[in-house]
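Aim 2 progress update. The chain analyzed this quarter is reproduced below.
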Amino acid sequence: MKQKPYLVGISGGSASGKTSFLRALRDTFTEDELCMVSQDNYYKLAYEHQKDENGHTNFDLPECVDLEAFAADLTLLARGETVYRHEYLFQHENQKGELLSFKPAPIIICEGLFIFYHAKIFEQFDLKIFINAKEELALQRRLARDVAERNISESFVLYQWEKHVKPAYQQYLLPFMAEADMIINNNTHFQTSLQVLQQFLQSKVKK
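Predicted structure tokens:
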């Protein structure tokens, strides 16, 4: 009988360093060993998103993401089925990106802001990891990323942080940090935590 995949959920606040951690983790496994699925590709199209009192789209709400589809696809992957999903294009929110395929593997990593908030996703995880960072550091990281990579003005990044990011973190993420099996404080580096997780997951692959 084929062994059930080991499902890992990795969440954390915006600019906590999830992407860097996930990239470093993925690089130590082959595609046959590990499949990584991001909540980012489950964002709804822009016209479906809510706007705040000033008419700006708030991307930091669970309602912006098709979490039901994410939960269903995760179930399919766990059953050994390949999942197909169009890439979500930031800055081109009403266009569909290329069709991506996610193939089942012994280790399935899921990442995203709201994956612990949604019960049908949360209950599927064998291991739950929360990546944390000091607020002032996370804000500096977000400023550096959004201004350089997404061509967003510094003033609007700060607006989003105060009006969207911080309230969402307090309501939809922080309450679930205590539910995590492992908390990684990513203020200076994550190498020790990364090595521990790599070794643990390698043992799951060997089984």
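The first strand starts at residue 6 and ends at 12. The radius of gyration is 17 Å. These observations will guide the mutagenesis experiments scheduled for the next reporting period.
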